[in-house]
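Summary of Year 1 activities. Much of the first year was spent building the evaluation harness for sequence design. The harness presents a backbone, in tokenized form, and records the residue chosen at every position. We chose the following record to illustrate the format because it has been used consistently in internal testing since the harness was completed.
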């Protein structure tokens, strides 16, 4: 793995030199935009909306659009003046119980590896987190932006989980959430039975994103065939069941599980 960030963890007066690795893999196939008739690649250009002319990079600035349509032009020094101060430190400022953090705040995992000379103090922090059953709330700067995170132990590793700031989350009250729907005891009991029947210990190895694999197979098949595979027939949409037979749907679901 290639380290994406180097720095240290600040734990009280203790400093732990570390390397940071991405904790995820991207399973993505790059597809180019082309013109259908001759497979000519499409090139994106920067064009002025007013005169339709291409604009070179040296003439491009960043601007904030005001309500009247005019722009406040921001140059490099303006943006640098408000950018987070670049530091190479993950600063732990508080410890909390992990279960106190709602899952909606969790965003992106990173793997923390200690430098050779910091292995003992890394192990000390790991064991202290384990024994306390807490996670360390921390702040760090990456690519000029400040982030919030937690340091938690996963098996023998300390992970940095980037979390969202509170003002980045939307309020569910902005959506139309039903709150006054009456559910009968029979319907609820049947739903609980379905949940019980489908309950298993969580095993992430059972779940795989097969899209990339299926896409590669389809591309190879189409490349080997002159005419290419036939267009798949459109899927037939299932008709929505009447609103008043919810109990029948629950019974059918339970029967399907048992079979």
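For this record, the design step produced the sequence shown next.
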């Amino acid at each position: 793995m290639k380290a994406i960030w180097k720095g240290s963890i600040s734990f009280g007066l203790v400093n732990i030199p570390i390397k940071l690795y991405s904790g995820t893999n991207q399973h993505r196939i790059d597809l180019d935009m082309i013109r259908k008739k001759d497979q000519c690649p499409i090139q994106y250009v920067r064009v002025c909306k007013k005169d339709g002319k291409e604009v070179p990079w040296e003439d491009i600035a960043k601007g904030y659009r005001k309500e009247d349509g005019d722009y406040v032009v921001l140059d490099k020094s303006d943006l640098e003046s408000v950018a987070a101060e670049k530091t190479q430190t993950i600063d732990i400022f508080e410890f909390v119980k992990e279960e106190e953090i709602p899952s909606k705040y969790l965003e992106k995992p990173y793997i923390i590896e200690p430098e050779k000379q910091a292995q003992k103090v890394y192990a000390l922090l790991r064991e202290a987190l384990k024994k306390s059953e807490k996670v360390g709330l921390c702040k760090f700067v990456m690519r000029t932006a400040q982030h919030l995170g937690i340091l938690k132990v996963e098996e023998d590793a300390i992970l940095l989980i980037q979390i969202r700031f509170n003002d980045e989350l939307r309020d569910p009250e902005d959506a139309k959430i039903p709150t006054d729907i009456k559910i009968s005891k029979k319907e609820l009991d049947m739903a609980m039975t379905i949940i019980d029947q489908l309950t298993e210990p969580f095993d992430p190895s059972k779940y795989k994103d097969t899209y990339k694999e299926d896409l590669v197979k389809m591309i190879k098949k189409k490349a080997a065939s002159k005419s290419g595979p036939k267009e798949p027939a459109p899927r037939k949409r299932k008709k929505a069941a009447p609103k008043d037979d919810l109990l029948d749907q629950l019974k059918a679901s339970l029967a399907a599980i048992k079979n």
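The radius of gyration is 27 Å. Quantitative recovery figures across the full test set are reported in Table 2.
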